[in-house]
Amino acid sequence: MLSPLWRGLPPIAPSAVSSSASCVLPPRFEAVRTARRFTRTTLQQWDLPGLFDDVALVVSELVTNSMRYALPAELVGTEYEPPVRLHLMRWTSRLVCAVRDPSEESPVAGEADASAECGRGLLLVDSFSDTWGWHPLAGALRGKVVWALFRLPRDRD
């Protein structure tokens, strides 16, 4: 069962924030590869390479959805503003990947039939992350953020 779609991030104490990184992604489908590389490099720097497979799959799905549904089709392949942006944030016990895009439309979980090649992205996000959601941007900013949260493994002493 999918999580409720409209949901802000669970409260996290600001004092628990340890690292964050972000990158701007060009409005081209090659951005998925860029996002995966950025994710690999960031997780290695944070000494979390064991999370790469699950986090990269989720990042790939979220970025693909932004490219496919959040950008006007005629602008994919141009230098469209505002761009899609990937944020990775690490707290002491959690990792969040968030993709910001210019669309104000809610993400919609598809119901793909068995032969469909697409329509399962948010089901994968739901399966591979601990929780996920989205929220509209506030103030003068337009668009939304779709995020997925991963609990970090505890250190073994």
Automatic annotation (TrEMBL):
Q: Please tell me whether the keyword Transferase is annotated for this protein.
A: yes
> Which residues does the UniProt record annotate as the domain Histidine kinase/HSP90-like ATPase?
26-134
What the entry lists under Gene3D superfamilies is as follows:
Histidine kinase-like ATPase, C-terminal domain
Give this protein's Gene Ontology molecular function annotations.
ATP binding
Q: Which CDD domains match?
A: HATPase_RsbW-like
Pfam (any one): HATPase_c_2
* Keyword annotations from UniProtKB, A to Z: ATP-binding, Kinase, Nucleotide-binding, Serine/threonine-protein kinase, Transferase
Q: Does the keyword Glycoprotein apply?
A: no
Q: Which PANTHER family match?
A: ANTI-SIGMA-F FACTOR RSBW (PTHR35526:SF3), ANTI-SIGMA-F FACTOR RSBW-RELATED (PTHR35526)
Q: What is this protein called?
A: ATP-binding protein
